Structure of DUF2800 domain-containing protein:
Amino acid sequence: MSTSQPPVPEGPPRPDRSPPPAGQTPAPAAVASAGGAGVPAGAAGVPSPAAPVDPPGSSDGRPAPPEDPAAVRKGRPPVSLSPSRASDFMQCPLLYRFRVIDRLPEKPSEAATRGTLVHAVLERLFDAPAAERTPLRARSLVSGQWDRLLESRPELAELFAQDEGGERLARWMSEAEALVERWFSLEDPTRLEPAERELFVETELESGLRLRGVIDRVDVAPSGEVRIVDYKTGKAPRPEYSEGALFQMTFYALVVWRLKGVVPRRLQLVYLGSGEVLTYDPVPADLERVERKLLALWDAIVRATATGEWRPRPTKLCGWCDHRARCPEFGGTPPVYPLPVVPGR
């Protein structure tokens, strides 16, 4: 494997220039991180159920895609697939049911909310002129973005309701500030002019499957090459689990390819928790493979929706699940299934 392939330039983008056609996409480079972790080129795809994922409630707090009006109320069959919901089904089909079909409420967590806050700060920082995108300015945004978050989601105040002295909140805010500041050791925002931030993307495949998601950042190089960037407030995975980590990014790359006919030049995961960057340069064959796996996954979801058979898949992550009390693996009883069942499907 070679790691000598030059990165996508960080100069100002030229939105009016079209990126190269999918057929001209360079061959994939090796995946590499600042800490030396990597996976072989061509390993992108859907992670196996055995691959560890973030515990429920400890995600990076990325904003959920806008809800499809047809699926807002509980008891509606799923009509689209996002990276998060695909990962839910692979982790545990019953968890997918609880979240998508039953739409059971979940308590906010400090980790996920901190991720939401950090994402908001990194997005807002680019509102400032390039020369003013400094660590000091970024840290100063944390408090104001927290206030805005509380205004839009008042239930988050429950996280620190018992923190009478404010010590936990202060520590939590300091942790968010540290994550924001660490970003500056991984990327230089004074040399970046994102083409898009928090970009909602959606496409419908020929099969009728609708894919949707929100991309943290899209960079376009002077040459027209596209880079998709995602921030993670956790730590980078071990090399043997990097394939699972890249699933979300190859999902986004597939959506962009099907929407624009362009294969992104680079996929980049920025891990603020461990100060590492994981990159992957996809080719059409990678994305075709991901598409086939997503279609197979969707077939399984459609089948489970029709039969009502959503089997739990116990793992060490069950201890973090908000729905453990309703899970039959732990003596619980799921809610009455709200959809009609088609026997023998």
About this structure: The chain is about 30% helix and 10% strand. The helical segments are 83-91, 93-101, 110-125, 135-152, 167-183, 242-260, 284-307. Residues 1-59, 67-72 have pLDDT under 50 and may be disordered. The radius of gyration is 20 Å.
